[in-house]
């Protein structure tokens, strides 16, 4: 009995062990995960990588089918080996592109786990779902904001005072998925500073931002960049930030600033490294602006001073190309040529340009006062702005600074470079002029600092002269113009110094433009009868009612002509010589035109030419000539009586 009970106990234990083994195997089989959605994929990937999910941005795309081609904005990286999920992890989301990122393929059954290190974002970011993380919430909460406007603004220097300072503000954005709100905020902040603090003219601030005025979404927050940077109701963004437009803007500035002036260039958004000190700025639509190309654009602009402030990653690589002779030039950047640049903790602004702009504005973008005027001379110079920004920059970047000639940054600021010339004298010129005729006007102005001056004339018909000069302070300069319309026009003049600072417009001189009167019919005197082979002398003259110089066109009626000989004064007698080689009756045609192309009606002169044999009979020839002249005189009197 005891033995049977023992056997029963052993059998029950064996059965229980088998059940436990089967159960354990089943549980092990069930423990192999199956990933069904993006959130599960994210959880699995986070656990495998041991990353702090609250310090990164995580995007998941999937499930994707087997053999799906995965692309970054720079090219293909993997074909999915089987059905699964693709993760894009931005490891340094406060840094501007291009910094380390990771792509992970996770198969749906979790058997495949592939990690790819890269530095470029996905080409199809809209297909990815952002996973909720602490940093993801900060990213989504970033918003476009305008800095507060100043209560007391510097009065803009009008066209009649100075338009010698120009600014180019650039944000390429790369593409809509990476054109973060902080880049628009950076532009808005510096734009308001230029207008409110330094009195820049709106039309002298050229803004190239992402896709320009295209109403399509162009920001990573799913919104379109507002073209009104300062909130005054006017569109401030002028161009999309593509290479063609960058070239266009700087080419036009080379012409606009032909007489000098001051140029400020501000760039934010992404940058990249090519190799060593060779770096690029990223423009819209993933286009690129190299440091060498940018330097060549600057070199063509005859500015009296250039100031550059750069935010993009690797932007320090631009300084060795920009800070070069002849200068003066000052440039600073958020980082070295081999570093990333970083956003502020709140992602609303970029760190370096936030503090640089605060320094030159006198308050930060949140309205908090700052004081970067270290030498207390009432002006924040470029070296002071850099010192302030570098001291307050807490991100892992090393701002860079350079100037040429060395030390010039201690004197340069965003203010106009010098005093403007005094108002020029009222232009001196004619009170009346005929249509299309050139009239010359002159003026003079003194420069308070004794610098040379250039003059420009406003012709009153919507056009201006080129800048003429340079002239010594007080020396007279002149320019000429012709008017295509009839009427009265106001001619004014303005002067600028060698720094490009322009003064007020002068008092206007009135000029009346009247219709041109054509010359009178020209007359010719000379022999009425001549012989072939003899050099004949003819005298031509006429009067121009407006006193213009004259040109003559003569057709000799022997197959030869003289084309618009001149100029000659109105009423001046002009002698022409001609030899006829054939005998016969000739009708010479004479026309006159004035210096502005007003043509007379034609005049005629009749002449009879006798062949060589008549030369042996000089007496007969003189008699014939006498009778011909007498006949012409009698005929003329009869016609007058009639």
Backbone CA Rg: 42 Å
Query: Which CATH first-tier class of the largest domain would you pick?
Result: Alpha Beta
Q: Regions with pLDDT < 50 over 5+ consecutive residues? A: 16-31
Helix content: 10-25%
> Mean pLDDT across all residues, rounded?
89
Q: How many structural domains in the coordinates?
A: 5
The class by helix and strand makeup works out as alpha+beta
Major sheet strand order: 10-9-8-11-15-16-17
Tell me about the biggest sheet?
7 strands, mixed
CATH architecture heading of the largest domain = 3-Layer(aba) Sandwich
Query: What separation lies between the terminal Cα atoms?
Result: 175 Å
Give the oligomer, counting copies of the same chain as homo and different chains as hetero.
Answer: single chain
Helix count from the secondary structure assignment = 10
Morphology call? elongated
Number-wise, the strands total: 32
The CATH topology of the largest domain is given as: Rossmann fold
Strand content: 25-35%
